[in-house]
Design brief:
Length: 229
């Protein structure tokens, strides 16, 4: 009997030692939602990890209004007492589906679609379809913390035609006020070298993630106030 009790106690201690610790971020996923992306890292250089979370509302069909289930973006600052919410938006991120586009690829299901690195929150989207479209693009937005608001500090866009191979790349540094455009390159022809054009941007009011749209027109990238819808 003593041997049995000792064996049970040893088993309990072993299981406890290797048990998965509770997820401190699980409480930020409410009932009826599922977490599809999570990034952690130090946004404000205080030595405590912060978090960016993407949630999808669980639904099996469109509603009568034709709208698809919302997608929620949360940003949490880590403190010694737990996490503090500084952003929550259901109208920010692109949907996993698009009306009249059955081949639409979810822009957020790419590796590192949401990432926190070097005190910067990065959101990356791949735009394209699995059929009927020859154009694809990769888009990145860069944000840094300013008084508990995430200010847009950079933007990058790479777009290419899968039929012709023609490509264009845009890189904007809003802190330095510079716009770099690379064009004329062809993925199928190494002899076509990229040409680069630099522009100095006019100083404008900053944009913040809590108030801006991410539906942006690359042709207006130099004008921050009319760039995004």
């Amino acid at each position: 009997m003593k041997h049995s009790i000792g064996f049970l106690l040893l088993t309990f201690l072993t299981v406890t030692a290797f048990a998965t610790p509770p997820d401190p971020l699980s409480k930020w996923t409410p009932k009826g939602w599922k977490r599809i992306a999570l990034a952690t890292g130090d946004l404000n250089a205080d030595g405590i990890d912060d978090a960016a979370i993407v949630l999808d509302k669980i639904s099996h069909s469109q509603n009568k209004a034709g709208r698809f289930p919302p997608r929620r973006m949360l940003v949490l600052l880590g403190t010694t007492g737990g996490f503090k919410k500084i952003l929550s938006r259901d109208d920010l991120l692109p949907s996993a589906y698009q009306e009249d586009a059955p081949c639409w690829l979810d822009p957020l299901l790419e590796p590192n679609a949401v990432l926190i690195k070097a005190s910067t929150l990065m959101l990356a989207f791949r735009q394209g379809t699995s059929c009927g479209s020859y154009d694809t693009s990769n888009e990145q937005f860069f944000y840094q913390l300013e008084d508990e608001r995430l200010q847009l500090t950079g933007y990058e866009l790479f777009q290419v035609s899968r039929s012709s191979g023609d490509s264009e790349e845009i890189k904007v540094d809003y802190r330095q006020g510079t716009l770099r455009t690379s064009y004329g390159q062809n993925l199928f022809d190494d002899t076509q070298k990229a040409r680069v054009r630099w522009e100095q941007l006019v100083v404008q009011l900053p944009l913040y993630l809590d108030e801006m749209s991410l539906n942006c027109d690359p042709e207006k990238v130099a004008d921050m106030q009319s760039w995004c819808e």
